[in-house]
Amino acid sequence: MGLFDKFDGLKAARRDLETLGIDPFGVEIERILSPTEGVIHGRRTILAGTNNYLGLTFHPETLAAARRALDAEGTGTTGSRMANGSYSAHRRLEEELAAFYGARDAIVFSTGYLANLGMLAGLTGPGDVVLLDADSHASIYDGCRLSGAEIIRFRHNDAADLAKRMRRLGARAADALIVIEGIYSMLGDRAPVKEIVAVKREYGGYLLVDEAHSLGVLGDRGRGLVEEQGVLADADFIVGTFSKSLGGTGGFCVSNLPALQLVRYSSRPYIFTASPSPTTIASTRQALAILATGRDLRARLRENYLRLHSGLSALGYRLGAPASPVVAVVLGERLQALRFWNGLLRRGVYVNVMLPPATPNGVSLIRCSLSAAHSAAQIDAVCAAFADLRGTVEAGAPERVTET
Ligand code: PMP
């Protein structure tokens, strides 16, 4: 097999999309107008697929903090913290994250993807066991691969299946790492974290919770599903990202376990990549302060996602999960989902289309993510676009797909 033969499948899939005149994976947002609006194909468009949960990307205080850091420290750190040294702000952010969770320490990584890669590969290796939810994010799977640990998948959100697998491990369960997410990114469903904690209490092991989609969203202070469910102290490691509710790029892990500090020295995704830029760190520190006290933002976000969830339910759409900031409409078939996505875009609504094999159970999804910054009128406009397209789903009738 030639080097490029493996691309044949991708080439064919791209050709199909070109024939349809649909390019969901190459969307160019020509102008960003606000956290919730942009210009796409020359049209003013509601952005409802950005994960900008608290709408902080244009907050005056985060902008001002980033500008100050830019002037004082420049555009980039130009190297990794291990080789080039940490800027003071990197350490301050780690202290602030640890304080936010009441944890002993924190490590900042350059992205959320690298946080999972860095924690899994830094913490586990050949001979260790990682039990992960089957619907885990790609970064969790990739981290396991990099670590070389034994991987055991348990059925999505099924604590009984996890318990069965822990039981089979016998004495090894005591040192196994269980990995779950707070809110799952595709369908917006939540982990049964209390039940999973009960399994951990029975069999031992350690629990890592990726709160990428629940940080800032759930819990009185925004500390995610573990705070909302009262099991913060049972999570041995909490991973999160700056790229959603905090409106930046980067990732972190907090823990009470002293071993976290040693992960810095064992984690290739921490050691061998450049540290986050001064502007990123500064805006994130400011955003974290806003998030921690942002009950009003969480309340507005909740109002918004309830409005969209009930609006789409009333239209008869099949939704992936009870209401959360991720509202996923389940469509059976790939082509239908692509056409539907394009229909929304032509009506000035940008969302995400998710296709197998990236989706659970081979479904195709139209995935919306809501923001505290959306107005009720914008959500009603999103619902109106879905209402307009309702017939195309029921009848499976082809939506005209070429751009007007
Ligand atoms: N974990 C989960 C559950 C995610 O959904 C994502 C990104 N969508 C990541 C980690 C990676 O985060 P980032 O995009 O900040 O690298």
Write the layout of secondary structure elements.
Elements: H1 8-20, E1 31-34, E2 37-40, E3 43-47, H2 60-73, H3 81-84, H4 88-101, E4 105-109, H5 112-123, E5 129-133, H6 138-147, E6 150-154, H7 159-169, E7 177-181, H8 193-203, E8 206-210, H9 225-228, E9 237-241, E10 251-255, H10 260-266, H11 268-271, H12 278-292, H13 295-314, E11 326-331, H14 334-346, E12 349-350, E13 352-354, E14 364-369, H15 376-388, H16 390-395
Parallel strand pairs: 3-12, 5-6, 5-7, 7-8, 8-9
Antiparallel strand pairs: 1-2, 2-3, 4-10, 9-10, 11-14, 13-14
Helix pairs in contact: 2-12, 4-12, 5-6, 5-10, 7-8, 13-15
This protein binds 4'-deoxy-4'-aminopyridoxal-5'-phosphate.
The site of 4'-deoxy-4'-aminopyridoxal-5'-phosphate has 14 residues, from helix 5.
Identify the notable features of this structure and list them briefly.
4-stranded mixed β-sheet; Aspartate Aminotransferase, domain 2; Aspartate Aminotransferase, domain 1; 16% strand; 7-stranded mixed β-sheet; 2 domains; globular; 404 residues; alpha/beta; 16 helices; binds 4'-deoxy-4'-aminopyridoxal-5'-phosphate
